[in-house]
């Protein structure tokens, strides 16, 4: 099943082209990694798929589970099974993590949660991510370290069980322990979802094995391959792709 | 609700009204005779009548404030106000004895239910007087006095005489003078030494009639080492003409006592809310004002604490929400008169749809107040470009040992926050509601839970229809 299909996508921000013709298809159970230098347009791609209002699609199509996304607002994309793990999740002062998770899960699943069942599910996921219960009473991302933010992003992903997971530099700022638990979470979700991993580094891809690796330069995918491409990019950089 | 009615009322849930029934209703307008009539009707002692009359003359002579929102203030027509309206012959102790319409109103407001669940006592005021009043037996047995103010004056004139106008003199400001002249209803509380009132006691103020003036007067005395939490709420029907609510609240915290006074003000958008609230804190006592202003047309209210005794502490947490056509002119005043007194002021305001919120604050440290500490934090959140927020802080510091902090910020809801929350399944309105509730959280967490839940719902409702 095709989870995400991007066809000749062009995207601008404030009139400046950022993505210049990308086509990409992600099927259920596939893990795709996009690598590239800063400013290549990787994060833009993830954000535009999620529906960020600052990005303008100038031409091309994006469809999700066989439906064009044009008219879907961000929250509708989330409710139909799309998830973006943020590179820099913003803080929401005054909103407690526990309450936030419950409301978020209820609105994505479109049902009232049974308190006891949800608590059980939440406890299980937190244990898996080695997160302390005290997280629940803290304010969302407020005063969190980089690693704590990424754990919370991963926790949300586990609870929301998306069909498409967009992971925007989930590995940046993580120590080795955090990287281990976070990648376990990604692998679990990837069994039943399509995954798009945006990263600079090979080290996450040692733990989460990609099926496809794409090298991105100046808003275009210039080379695609298997896991061996990631290793080559890590060793040789991107210059050899610019001919 | 008909569409027309909804257009008029908007999303204000408490805008309904009962048929106006009264057993006594004074003609509109104010004169010395009206003041004397109110006092006579209530069978008051001579000294109270005299204070009322003096206050009336002060009110007449005192010019309108030349600061604040003068344009809005000028819209008050004192001749078009009903100064006294009795809607029920007496104050009942059983809800079943309260006239049907009035009882229904308070049921819609959830008062009897709250009373059963979590309150130590309730007074429900409708127009000028309390229609219902009760206190838990155990509190009564411990010697706690909790009455509506009229009954308080009848039963304990010596206490009232000692403290009435002792914290807020009638000459304090024009509206304090007006209140002192025509006051009716409000609460009278005395907590004996070392008695801790564990459950909050609540007063609920409802205006029902058009062009009504409500002038309740509240006096709370916490004797040495005692503590009490008093909660008040207020609503009114939405009319096209204005009503006037002008209250005076006086708190006295004796040595080592603690008073917390929580307010959720949700008047309809046609009510002028001009209130003087002030407490005196003796040695090592604590006075806390937890003050929420959501409704009204114009609110001018600056809860104050006079830190008179060494080591006393003041806490003022105030939030204001100003929507279309509203001006919330709120703030806090703290006077450090004694050594080692401390205060915290946290003010948070939200302006939306052209609404305006102002923080007006006064911090005074007198020369003999050695080693004082004070922290003031003012945060304003603007939801659009047509709204307004301003701050008018004043500091008079006469002692160089004072440790003072003042932080102020104005912010907007960020696109990043909205995108993040929407990516978690929340609609834009839900996301705004969540950010707004989070912004007010330092206030709501201080409220009894039932109030906090209600307030959050209210704010979420305010966010509906705010996009587009």
Compile the SSE list and pairings.
The complex is a heterodimer of chains A (243) and B (468).
Chain A (H helix, E strand, L loop, with lengths): L1 E12 L2 E12 L3 E6 L5 H9 L5 E9 L2 E2 L5 H6 L2 E4 L6 E5 H13 L5 H14 L10 E2 L5 H15 L3 E5 L7 H15 L3 E6 L2 H6 L4 E6 L2 E6 L1 H10 L7
Parallel strand pairs in A: 3-10, 3-11, 6-9, 9-10
Antiparallel strand pairs in A: 1-2, 1-4, 4-5, 7-8, 11-12
Chain B lengths: L2 H7 L14 E2 L6 H10 L4 H16 L8 H5 L10 E2 L13 H9 L2 H8 L2 E6 L2 E7 L1 H5 L3 E4 H7 L1 H7 L10 H9 L4 E5 L9 E6 L6 E2 L2 E6 L4 E9 L7 E3 L2 E6 L4 E8 L5 E11 L4 E8 L4 E4 L2 E4 L5 E10 L4 E10 L5 E10 L4 E10 L7 E10 L5 E10 L5 E10 L2 H8 L5 H17 L4 H15 L5
Parallel strand pairs in B: 3-7, 6-9, 7-10, 8-11, 9-12, 10-13, 11-14, 12-14, 13-15, 14-16, 14-17, 15-18, 16-19, 17-19, 18-20, 19-21, 20-22, 21-23, 22-24
Antiparallel strand pairs in B: 1-2, 3-4, 5-6
Helix pairs in contact in B: 2-3, 3-10, 8-9, 11-12, 12-13
Q: Which descriptor suits the 3D outline of chain B?
A: globular
What's the total number of strands of chain A?
12
Q: What summary fits the major beta sheet of chain B?
A: 12 strands, mixed
Strand content of chain B: 25-35%
Number of domains of chain B: 2
| Corresponding CATH superfamily of chain A | P-loop containing nucleotide triphosphate hydrolases
The count of strands of chain B amounts to 24
Specify Rg of chain B, calculated over alpha carbons: 21 Å
Shape of chain A: globular
Distance between the ends of chain A? 36 Å
CATH architecture of chain A: 3-Layer(aba) Sandwich
SSE pattern of chain A, N- to C-terminal = EEEHEEHEEHHEHEHEHEEH
Work out the oligomeric state of the chains in this entry: heterodimer
SS strand fraction of chain A: 25-35%
> What is the SS-derived class of chain A?
alpha/beta
């Amino acid at each position: 099943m095709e989870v995400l299909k991007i066809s000749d996508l062009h995207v601008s921000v404030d009139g400046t082209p950022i993505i210049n013709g990308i086509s990409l298809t992600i099927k259920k159970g596939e893990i795709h990694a996009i690598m590239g230098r800063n400013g290549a347009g990787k994060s833009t791609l993830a954000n535009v798929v999620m529906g960020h209002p600052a990005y303008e699609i100038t031409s091309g199509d994006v469809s999700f589970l066989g439906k064009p996304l044009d008219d879907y607002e961000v929250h509708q994309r989330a409710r139909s099974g799309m998830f973006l793990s943020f590179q820099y999740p913003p803080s929401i002062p005054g909103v407690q993590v526990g309450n936030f998770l419950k409301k978020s899960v209820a609105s994505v699943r479109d049902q009232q949660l049974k308190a006891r069942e949800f608590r059980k599910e939440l406890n299980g996921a937190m244990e898996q991510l080695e997160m302390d219960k005290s997280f629940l009473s803290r304010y969302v991302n407020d005063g969190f370290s980089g690693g704590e933010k990424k754990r919370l992003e991963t926790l949300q992903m586990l609870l929301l069980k998306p069909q498409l997971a967009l992971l925007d530099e989930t590995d940046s700022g993580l120590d080795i322990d955090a990287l281990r638990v976070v990648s376990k979470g990604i692998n679990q979700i990837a069994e039943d979802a399509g995954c798009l991993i945006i990263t600079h580094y090979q080290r996450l891809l040692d733990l989460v094995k990609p099926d496809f690796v794409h090298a991105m330069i100046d808003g275009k995918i210039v080379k695609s391959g298997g896991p061996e491409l990631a290793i080559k990019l890590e060793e040789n950089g991107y210059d050899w792709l610019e001919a | 609700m008909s569409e027309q009615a909804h257009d008029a009322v908007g999303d204000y849930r408490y805008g309904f009204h009962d048929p106006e029934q009264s057993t006594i209703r004074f003609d509109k307008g104010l004169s010395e005779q009206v003041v004397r009539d109110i006092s006579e009707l209530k069978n008051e002692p001579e000294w109270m009548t005299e204070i009322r009359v003096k206050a009336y003359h002060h009110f007449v002579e005192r010019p309108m404030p030349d600061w604040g929102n003068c344009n809005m203030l000028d819209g008050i027509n004192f001749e078009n106000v009903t100064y006294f309206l009795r809607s029920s012959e007496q104050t009942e102790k059983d809800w079943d004895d309260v006239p049907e319409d009035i009882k229904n109103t308070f049921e819609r407001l959830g008062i009897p239910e709250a009373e059963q669940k979590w309150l130590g006592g309730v007074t429900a005021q409708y127009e000028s007087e309390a229609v219902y009043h009760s206190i838990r037996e155990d509190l009564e047995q411990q010697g706690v006095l909790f009455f509506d103010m009229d009954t308080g004056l009848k039963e304990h004139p010596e206490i009232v005489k000692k403290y009435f106008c002792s914290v807020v003199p009638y000459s304090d400001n024009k509206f304090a003078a007006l209140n002192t002249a025509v006051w009716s209803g409000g609460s009278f509380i005395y907590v004996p030494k070392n008695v801790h009132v564990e459950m909050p006691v609540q007063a609920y103020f409802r205006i029902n009639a058009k062009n009504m003036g409500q002038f309740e007067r509240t006096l709370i005395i916490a004797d040495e080492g005692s503590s009490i939490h008093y909660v008040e709420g207020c609503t009114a029907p939405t009319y096209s003409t204005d009503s006037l609510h002008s209250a005076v609240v006086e708190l006295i915290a004796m040595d080592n006592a603690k008073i917390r006074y929580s307010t959720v003000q949700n008047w309809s958008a046609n009510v002028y809310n001009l209130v003087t609230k002030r407490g005196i804190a003796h040695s090592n006592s604590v006075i806390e004002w937890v003050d929420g202003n959501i409704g009204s047309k114009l609110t001018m209210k600056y809860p104050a604490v006079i830190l008179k005794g060494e080591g006393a502490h003041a806490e003022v947490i105030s939030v204001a929400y100003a929507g279309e056509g509203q001006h919330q002119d709120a703030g806090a005043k703290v006077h450090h008169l004694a050594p080692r007194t401390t205060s915290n002021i946290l003010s948070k305001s939200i302006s939306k749809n052209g609404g305006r919120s102002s923080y007006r604050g006064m911090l005074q440290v007198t020369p003999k107040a050695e080693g004082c500490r004070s922290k003031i934090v003012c945060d304003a959140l603007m939801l659009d470009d047509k709204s307004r927020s301003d701050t008018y802080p004043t500091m008079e510091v006469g002692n160089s040992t004072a440790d003072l902090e003042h932080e102020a910020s104005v912010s907007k809801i960020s696109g990043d926050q909205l995108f993040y929350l929407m990516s978690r399944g929340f609609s834009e309105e839900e996301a705004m509601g969540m950010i707004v509730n989070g912004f007010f959280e330092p206030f709501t967490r201080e409220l009894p839970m039932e109030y906090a839940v209600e307030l959050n719902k209210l704010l979420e409702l305010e966010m509906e229809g705010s996009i587009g």
